[in-house]
Design brief:
NADH Oxidase, 11 helices, 4 strands
Length: 247
């Protein structure tokens, strides 16, 4: 399992081999054994294999080709709709139309998503997370007909890999792990932790192609700009309001 996890690669191209329904169902059942808040399982997974619906979803994901090409697109949702209906039918008054409940169910949905990914990779499938889900949540809500108290938080394309990309770099573990308390960084430690990434030929070329002076500028000025972050933040907050998680 450790070897499998250490070999994780994002797969964006898939063969035309479909995933057997029984295998997909087994993987989903395995994923749903994951830890969750209060054993409420306040999440849902919308599995899209219909080509027409995949085409409808594609614009919300910036028309990334794998959305249509992948045999299955899985949308993981924070979902307090089902649990709230159960409460009401049992004369219990639900109080889950708030941000705390959204956060709990969103975290649980992400845990299920990652558990699914690990299980899928163990049987030879490849996956790709789509960060565009929260960018265009309202469009996805409309396409998938999600009711109140259901909000998409991440999407995964899954299928058999058509190619196998190189293993992506990761920061040294010292950049991530803190013991007992948070050990804040200084100029020297930041320089040391990012030196290998910044000095690699891959990222040097990346910086040059984007006509920037540093890798950091590629992120702040092109890939994840303040303007876009604020725009999509407002869009997602509005989706949360429309779905009943925010007043």
């Amino acid at each position: 399992m450790i070897t499998q996890l250490n070999q994780h690669k994002t797969i964006r191209k898939y063969t035309n081999v479909s995933i057997k329904p029984e295998l997909l169902n087994e993987l989903l059942e395995t994923a749903c054994r994951a830890s969750n808040t209060g054993n409420m399982q306040a999440y849902s997974v919308v599995v899209t294999t219909n080509n027409e619906i995949k085409k409808q979803l594609a614009p919300a994901h910036f028309n990334q080709p794998m959305v249509v090409q992948a045999p299955a697109v899985l949308t993981f949702c924070a979902d307090f709709n089902r649990f709230s209906q159960w409460c009401e039918l049992r004369d219990a008054e639900p109080g889950y139309d708030n941000f705390q409940s959204f956060m709990a169910s969103a975290i649980d949905a992400m845990i299920v998503a990652q558990t699914f990914c690990v299980a899928a990779e163990c049987v030879g499938l490849g996956i790709c997370y789509l960060g565009t889900t929260t960018y265009n949540a309202q469009e996805i809500i409309e396409t998938l007909k999600l009711p109140k108290l259901v909000v998409p938080v991440t999407t995964i394309t899954v299928g058999y890999p058509a190619d196998m990309p190189e293993l992506m770099d990761r920061l040294p573990i010292d950049a991530i792990v803190h013991y007992d308390t948070y050990n804040d960084f200084n100029t020297e430690s930041i320089n040391n932790l990012y030196s290998e990434k910044e000095n690699s030929e891959f990222y040097k070329q990346f910086v040059a192609e984007n006509k920037k002076e540093s890798l950091a500028q590629v992120f702040t000025d092109i890939r994840y700009t303040k303007k876009n972050n604020e725009f999509f933040s407002e869009k997602f907050l509005e989706a949360l309001r429309m779905q009943g998680f925010l007043k």
